[in-house]
Amino acid sequence: MVKPIMKDIFFLQQKSEPAAAADAQVMRDLLDTLQAHREECVGMAANMIGVKKRIIAVCIGPIQLLMVNPEIVKKSESYEAEEGCLSLPGVRRTTRYQSIEVEYQDQQLKPHRQAFSGWTAQIIQHEVDHCNGILI
């Protein structure tokens, strides 16, 4: 189900809690909401739909990758980026990393460790920041 986008800064600045199998509906809602905003959005965290759980969804071309309990475990090559966010007005500067490695679980809670670079890495970093209550 497509959910409204959360814009409450106080809510968005709170850290998200670990997700579990009981959060399957939140995972589906997050994917549905990201798909509904595909024209203006390439990633979304569960707190952006009002749920403080560590779940993110990222567009990689036509594919939506769902990550449950993502943790960035390695990063390299920092750079300055400009980013926007559906939950916040305007564009802001922030530091990102060209290459990252992420440990996460898929929708079935099977563990993964995967490397990402470039634009995809930047999107993942933005959404993991959301999980940690960090806003651009």
UniProtKB/TrEMBL annotation:
Where is Fe cation bound in this sequence?
85, 126, 130
Which cofactors does this protein require?
Fe(2+)
Q: Which reaction does it catalyse?
A: N-terminal N-formyl-L-methionyl-[peptide] + H2O = N-terminal L-methionyl-[peptide] + formate
Which residues does the Swiss-Prot or TrEMBL record annotate as the active site? 127
The UniProt entry, under CDD domains, shows:
Pep_deformylase (cd00487)
Q: Which GO terms describe its biological process?
A: translation
**InterPro entries for this protein:** Peptide_deformylase, Peptide_deformylase_sf
Tell me the GO molecular function terms.
metal ion binding; peptide deformylase activity
**Superkingdom of the source species:** Bacteria
What are the entry keywords?
Hydrolase, Iron, Metal-binding, Protein biosynthesis
Q: How is the cofactor bound?
A: Binds 1 Fe(2+) ion.
Report the EC number(s), separated by commas if there are several.
Answer: 3.5.1.88
Query: Which N-terminal stretch is annotated as signal sequence?
Result: none
Q: What class of enzyme is it?
A: hydrolase
The record's annotation in Gene3D superfamilies points to: Peptide deformylase
Q: Which family does the similarity line name? A: Belongs to the polypeptide deformylase family.
Which PANTHER family does the entry mention?
PEPTIDE DEFORMYLASE
Q: Which NCBIfam families match?
A: PRK09218.1
Instruction: Give a short account of what the protein does.
Output: Removes the formyl group from the N-terminal Met of newly synthesized proteins. Requires at least a dipeptide for an efficient rate of reaction. N-terminal L-methionine is a prerequisite for activity but the enzyme has broad specificity at other positions.
Name under which the protein is recorded = Peptide deformylase
- List the taxonomic lineage: Bacteria, Bacillati, Bacillota, Clostridia, Eubacteriales
What is the primary gene name for this protein? def
